[in-house]
Amino acid sequence: MIAVYPGSFDPITSGHLDIIVRASKLYESLIVVVAQNGSKVPAFSVEERVMLLEKTVASEELKNVKVACFSSGLLVDYTDNLGAGVIVRGLRAVSDFEYEFQRALTNRHLRPSIETVFLMTSAEHLFLSSSIVKELARLQGRIDGLVPAAITDDVRAKFLVQSE
Ligand code: ADP
What we know:
globular; five-stranded parallel sheet; binds adenosine-5'-diphosphate; Rossmann fold; single chain; alpha/beta; 164 residues
């Protein structure tokens, strides 16, 4: 079974990576999809987000993980076209629930054959989000451990350039 894990990944955090590692063990193949979220203005371009994800998953352990991007149309159509039957999402505290529930039910309404599967966050990532990482990086705060080690310098560099 092929699964997709869609998200903004602006940028990928250790919370996202935790979901990727766990989902990659459940499915034959996992495609992490950078999706354009119309209501969010991203700090990183789609190409940058894809590059950061590719750097992160370039390890032996994650050889069944691929990275793709998707900019228009319905996620369920995109998922179908990839031959995938599952959409993976991560769940943090209560705040994610209503939004995720609405999206999952809408996607089921559109395409009942595709299941949305939720993986619960690990306790240490409960309060971690891309927004927190960006806020810290902008203020030159320490982001070590909050983003995958392979991309810490890239995230820092992005905000150094912006603040000059
Ligand atoms: P989106 O804009 O689609 O919500 P995000 O990049 O913010 O994209 O999140 C992608 C998915 O990863 C969502 O399902 C989100 O709930 C999940 N996620 C984000 N941060 C964490 C975390 N710290 N632990 C577990 N799941 C997370």
